[in-house]
């Protein structure tokens, strides 16, 4: 029902990420109207990028699932400047995938949400490309300063549980390496921009996490499945690391978790 109401006002993203992307593309005066969406789904439902393609942006939309890709191909058939790819994106193929689809080095927007080893895919992208705005999912239930990520494994598949992705602090470890700034966390999506075009101060993971997740008044309503992870928010960092390691003990060896 929420998606229907949102679409009636031209919003397709699940938590209004589209509004933030619109804001930042204007504030940053992004001229390279090329968008890469990795894990695009059906291209419309909960899409952060559909509105860009409708506005005439060129780009690349990637989806692995057969049913979603069929819907994506049908919906995007009239978007002449948008290439489609059906494949499983990994750290090993992502750079060649972008290069093969003629993604500019400094393309406008990257949207990344593969529910797994996102950290390692993003690391590879940033080794060759410099998108002006990055919207990337984080595992919102794991607070700073805990650094957590699922390891790259070709056999990994999300089981629709808490075991996926990267914590905000783990994501932010890429920022000094590639000269990016964290400008906002919106529930479970972090927004990064190149430091040289960031109009304001960078946020620390702690600042962004408090504003964008912990202090959101409707957080528990939007993420009721996180109730069993709530104790993490009141733990000391060392306790939080121990909690996460215990919680995912059955997946030992498949993740990294440290301070």
Note down, in words, how this protein is organized:
The protein has helices at 2-8, 17-27, 50-54, 66-75, 94-100, 118-128, 168-172, 175-178, 205-214, 219-222, 237-247, and strands spanning 34-38, 58-63, 82-86, 109-112, 133-137, 147-150, 180-186, 189-194, 255-258. With 259 residues, it is α/β, with parallel strands linked by helices. The strands form two sheets. Strands 3-2-1-4-5-8-7 form a seven-stranded mixed beta sheet. It has one domain: 3-Layer(aba) Sandwich (Rossmann fold).
How is the topology of this model organized?
Blueprint: H1 2-8, H2 17-27, E1 34-38, H3 50-54, E2 58-63, H4 66-75, E3 82-86, H5 94-100, E4 109-112, H6 118-128, E5 133-137, E6 147-150, H7 168-172, H8 175-178, E7 180-186, E8 189-194, H9 205-214, H10 219-222, H11 237-247, E9 255-258
Parallel strand pairs: 1-2, 1-4, 2-3, 4-5
Antiparallel strand pairs: 5-8, 6-9, 7-8
What key attributes describe this structure?
disordered N terminus, globular, 7-stranded mixed beta sheet, alpha/beta, 11 helices, Rossmann fold, 259 residues, two-stranded antiparallel ribbon
CATH homologous superfamily classification? Vaccinia Virus protein VP39
The count of β-strands is: 9
What sort of overall outline do the alpha carbons produce when their principal axes are compared? Answer: globular
> What fraction, in percent, of the residue positions are helical?
25-40%
Strand content bin: 15-25%
Provide the gyration radius in Å.
18 Å
Instruction: Please provide the ordered H/E string of secondary-structure elements.
Output: HHEHEHEHEHEEHHEEHHHE
CATH architecture descriptor: 3-Layer(aba) Sandwich
Enter the CATH topology name. Rossmann fold
Q: What is the structural class?
A: alpha/beta
């Amino acid at each position: 029902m929420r998606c229907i109401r949102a679409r009636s006002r031209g919003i397709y993203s699940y938590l209004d990420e589209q509004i933030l992307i619109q804001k930042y593309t204007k504030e940053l005066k992004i001229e390279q109207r090329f968008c890469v969406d990795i894990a695009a789904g059906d291209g419309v439902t909960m899409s952060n990028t559909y509105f860009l393609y409708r506005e005439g942006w060129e780009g690349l939309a990637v989806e692995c699932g057969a049913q979603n890709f069929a819907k994506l191909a049908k919906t995007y058939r009239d978007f002449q400047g948008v290439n489609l790819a059906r494949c499983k994106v990994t750290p090993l193929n992502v750079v060649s995938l972008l290069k093969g689809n003629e993604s500019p080095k400094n393309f406008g927007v990257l949207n990344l949400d593969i529910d797994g080893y996102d950290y390692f895919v993003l690391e590879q992208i940033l080794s060759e490309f410099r998108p002006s705005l990055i919207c990337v999912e984080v595992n919102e239930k794991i607070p700073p300063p805990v650094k957590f990520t699922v390891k790259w494994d070709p056999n990994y598949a999300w089981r629709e549980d808490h075991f996926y992705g990267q914590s905000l602090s783990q994501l932010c470890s890429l920022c000094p390496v590639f000269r990016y700034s964290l400008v906002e966390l919106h529930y479970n999506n972090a927004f990064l921009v190149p430091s040289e075009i960031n109009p304001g101060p960078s946020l620390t993971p702690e600042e962004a996490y408090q504003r964008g997740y912990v202090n959101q008044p409707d957080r528990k309503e939007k993420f009721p499945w996180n109730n069993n992870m709530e104790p993490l928010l009141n733990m000391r960092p060392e306790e939080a690391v121990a909690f996460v390691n215990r919680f995912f003990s059955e997946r030992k060896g498949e993740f990294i978790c440290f301070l």
